[in-house]
User: Fold these one by one.
Assistant:
Number 1:
Amino acid sequence: MRAVVTGGAGFLGSHLCDRLLAEGWEVLAVDNFITGSAENVRHLAQNAKFKLKNEDVSKTDALKVDGEVGYVLHFASPASPPDYLKHPIATMMVGSIGTQNALELALRKNAKFFMASTSECYGDPEMSPQKEEYWGHVNSVGPRAVYDEAKRFSEAMTMAYYRHYGVDTRIVRIFNTYGPRMRLNDGRALPNFVFQALSGQALTIYGDGKQTRSFCYVDDLIDGIYKLMLSDEHMPVNIGNSREITILEFAERIREHFDNVPLIIFEPLPQDDPKRRCPDISKAKRILKWEPKINLEEGLKRTLAYFKQEFSRQRSA
Ligand code: NAD
Ligand code: UDP
């Protein structure tokens, strides 16, 4: 019952560490803090079952872990588009060499392996909702490719270790997830809108705002991930919330929680920005008996409470 979580000081990784510890696991989180922060796991500092190691998992000799390991969960990677565009090579390295290092650790320790993949594997999809069988529509030389193709490589590498070496692997395709511990300045839609609303600035909509996303609250996502960890499924599984919403409506839903926020402003749409994204979660419902429970209104309430506190803390610091 000892798990290694790469990216354990990030948004999702830190919530995953909390869940694993609550389920009785010992956890070693490995992170180089490129987009995460030790603050996200500070509340675990006194927990004897938790350790945090500062390491870049993409280095050639990384992930040399002593002792027994039962599960390796590979969550390290910049995930926000502005983050991965700022760190394009590091993103490709952690999705290639980093993934292989994590798989090698699982192989050496005879541990199970869990790959945090993404809906970005579907690219700018030509069908919606996206089923796991859909192969995707990715521009391999566009700016987003550093993330999309690294994750597609990670999936292929995971399946190669499963088929060639018999490593017991799982792959989750995570759709847009939000909640406490996202960075206020990580550049994704929700933190941007909340930061803008808190600082009295207009909310920035890229393009006409008619593109869609489907936002999942973090607790629901982690619950789906834990169920997938315990399942026997080796092929990818979508985990996300299938309630699809336009970005314009999403911005309005956030704006209505604040007084006196200036009107929305429109800015250019980034290249290859997917027009639609919505998970088909029938596979997760069928094999994991999982579906999200927290609706957007409730999830936003919880997230805004965190961001308001974080905003005041950062202002006073
Ligand atoms: P995040 O940026 O908050 O967390 C990523 C963590 O990985 C950070 O703590 C970062 O410092 C760490 N990291 C990155 N490169 C590393 C390296 N070379 N060595 C060690 N640590 C490294 O992002 P997140 O939203 O928590 O995403 C976590 C994982 O989930 C990522 O793999 C991401 O691709 C995947 N994912 C997230 C979402 C989402 O909506 N949040 C959607 C799809 C997929
Ligand atoms: N977006 C926006 N304004 C912002 C940030 C993002 O309109 O300030 C749009 C972005 O172009 C995309 C959607 O919101 O269409 C979701 O973006 P995000 O970066 O959160 O995640 P993505 O799903 O693109 O990885």
Note: The pocket of nicotinamide-adenine-dinucleotide (ligand 1) is lined by residues 6-7, 9-13, 30-36, 56-58, 75-79, 83, 94, 98, 116, 118, 174, 176-177 (CB under 6 Å).
Number 2:
Amino acid sequence: MFDSGFGGLTVARAIIDQLPGESMVYLGDTARAPYGPKKLPEVREYALECLDYLVRQDVKALVIACNSASSAVLRDARERYDVPVIDVILPAARRAVKLTRNGRIGVICTHATATSLSYDDAIAAVPGVDLVTQPCPLFVQYVEAGITGGTELLQTAREYLLPLREAEIDTLILGCTHYPLLTGVISYVMGEGVALVSSAEECARDTYATLTDLGLLSPSSNPARRFLTTGAPELFETLGRRLLGNFVTEVEQVYAV
Ligand code: DGL
């Protein structure tokens, strides 16, 4: 599993919940994160380096947990590797299309994901569905600072989400690894009439379905999990645990991917 940093741990957690027997190598490129404000060719270069590294660890499947990286490399990655590649964009887009009743879907994401138009591409073929995209870059900073509530965050959320409320969407895709941790405030601002789609949950379901369909599910009841980071392991462990609990242990530093 690959992410730009810590946020992909939301996807890791969803996968551990749904597939507790699977072993996992998680690589967070924290030394070069955040990817969200970067240009797509740069994100592409970093993401392919990290994915090449994971493939050299002899994995049976790759999960690109990062929306910005999925947006930049999904097609290339599917051609480049012999193992199945699961992303966060397509499963979330499919779920949103199924859920919407009025045909108006919103997605909140980083600038990189918004610029790539990856969610637009995923939904383009569906007739009668419109997508409204809203980058919310500060949300990543709030989550990494451990802030998931309070008046300042609420005010920021109201400003970011206003165009989506005005567009009268009925389904909102949380198109960034960090946003499931802000479900409370996002749901509070959008109201109960708007269904939230977590790309982390949908990615985990897709991982389950892909491994099952390809006969790749592990019979193991004793999975091994490794957490690798290109940055400082102490920081990864501290932030990872603060955000997502005790399953983040034994973080190792990778110097060259
Ligand atoms: N993982 C990124 C994403 O899902 C968010 C953090 C970053 O910008 O690197 O788009």
Note: The radius of gyration is 17 Å.
